[in-house]
Amino acid sequence: MRISDVQVIPVKPQNGLVGLASLVFDDCLYLGSLGIYTKPLGGYRLTYPTKKAGGTNVFHPINREAGEQIERAVIAKFERVQGL
């Protein structure tokens, strides 16, 4: 799995939300509407769309490795955009 593009949009902080993100896997699958939130003790966490389809999330990582890869890519891009 290769993340081929990451886009982030910083937003005015509200209830911990500091940005929105989208990404592309292997130049063929677009995933959007990821939320970037601050953690209470520092750092960031991601949230995935909450709209349900048949009782389950529309998309989310199936394993820890995929979730961590997405998180690293999105947070690294967010920090570059923010100049951190």
Question: Could you characterize the architecture of this molecule?
Answer:
The protein has one domain: Arylsulfatase, C-terminal domain (2-Layer Sandwich). The chain has 1 helix and 6 strands; from the N terminus they run ββββββα. By secondary structure, it is an alpha+beta fold. The strands form 2 sheets. The chain has a 4-stranded antiparallel β-sheet, covered by helices on one side. A two-stranded antiparallel sheet has the order 5-6.
Number of domains: 1
Number of strands: 6
Q: What is the gyration radius calculated from CA atoms? A: 13 Å
Run of helices and strands: EEEEEEH
CATH architecture: 2-Layer Sandwich
Structural class: alpha+beta
CATH class: Alpha Beta
Beta strand %: over 45%
Could you give a short account of the major beta sheet?
A: 4 strands, antiparallel
Q: At the fourth CATH level, what is the homologous superfamily?
A: Stage V sporulation protein G
Q: What is the fold-level CATH name, i.e. the topology? A: Arylsulfatase, C-terminal domain
